Amino acid sequence: MKGWLFTGTNIPLKLVEKEDPKATPNHVVIEVKAAGLCHSDVAALQDPGWMPLFPNGPVIMGHEFAGVVIEVGEGVTELKVGDRVGVNPLDQETREAAGYNYDGGYANIARVPAKNCVKLPDNVSFIEGAAATDAGLTSYHALFSIGQAKPGMKVGIIGVGGLGQFAVQMAMIKGCEVYAADVSEAAIKLAEELGCKKVYNNVLDMKEAECDVIIDFAGFGQTTSDALEAVKAKGTVVVVGMGKLQTEVNTYLLITKELKLLGSNGGTNEDLKGVYDCFATGKLKPQLTTISFDEIPEGLEKLKRHEVKGRLVAVFE
């Protein structure tokens, strides 16, 4: 196998060759067909604060990927060779993650826990399947599992980027009335094109919409504070973005409006199935830009320079 190895902060990824992994008990080996690139990988490459997330030393990066099962380990009964799968990057029980605790999807072959695999519907591509495992999964979990968005509800989306675009479309597919806020003209235009009821360049202006739930995909502190101001009384604000890791919360609003302020991280296999169901409708069409396996390091640099629209996915030929 070959893959892009992470060895430490401020050190470029290194293309390495390793012995092909073998299927161990309760694991499968997949031939990776597509792998999404994520801003968290960019952060890990330049911020030493991320190093504790790599407890086992150098590891092949990549936590959002999809492929074909090529080997099945002892004890695996629900998967077989030839199955098309996407991989939930975070094990909900052990909290171990592909590309952090063990070799991930920036490789042509990967060994993963069988319980983290979700079968792809026939009409969902590997590219869509890979993008769904992080951007789609995280958005779905925040919206429906944590935020409890239901058909007919008014939903506010802060930040229409790689995750927000998924959230906008999935909320609409599920019958919600969607509003959005972003400071980027390109993102505002995208939100309008996707069919949002109204798009704002200031979160506070969303107050007129009286949203039942607002999902903050930016998380810059002020966006969260403004969301508490904007959401309707007894509404819910879910924070996903980590643009700022600490902020002050207006407890007066939290108390007097009887609000819920919740955090959301990753998602379950059921959430991932939900994303794939949305893709299977043919209505979920996020912006996905493809690159080759060899272009992964440059793709991460483009993410770092904010030159990517939507989600960047490496395709393995």
Question: Strands, helices and their partners?
Answer:
Blueprint: E1 2-6, E2 14-17, E3 27-37, H1 39-46, E4 59-60, E5 65-72, E6 84-87, E7 109-113, E8 117-119, H2 126-146, E9 154-158, H3 164-173, E10 177-181, H4 185-194, E11 198-200, E12 213-216, H5 222-230, E13 236-239, H6 251-256, E14 260-263, H7 269-280, E15 288-292, H8 296-304, E16 311-315
Parallel strand pairs: 9-10, 9-12, 10-11, 12-13, 13-14, 15-16
Antiparallel strand pairs: 1-2, 1-4, 3-5, 3-7, 3-16, 5-6, 6-8
Helix pairs in contact: 1-8, 2-3, 2-7
Brief synopsis:
The protein is α/β, with parallel strands linked by helices. The chain is 27% helix and 24% strand. Strands 3, 5, 6, 7, 8, 15 and 16 form a seven-stranded mixed β-sheet that branches.
Task: Describe this protein's structure.
There is one protein chain. The chain has 317 residues and is α/β, with parallel strands linked by helices. It folds into two domains: 2-133 and 267-315, Alpha-Beta Complex (Quinone Oxidoreductase, Chain A, domain 1); 148-263, Rossmann fold, CATH 3.40.50. It has helices at 39-46, 126-146, 164-173, 185-194, 222-230, 251-256, 269-280, 296-304; strands at 2-6, 14-17, 27-37, 59-60, 65-72, 84-87, 109-113, 117-119, 154-158, 177-181, 198-200, 213-216, 236-239, 260-263, 288-292, 311-315. Strands 3, 5, 6, 7, 8, 15 and 16 form a seven-stranded mixed sheet that branches. Helix 2 (126-146) packs across helix 3. The radius of gyration is 19 Å and the shape is globular.
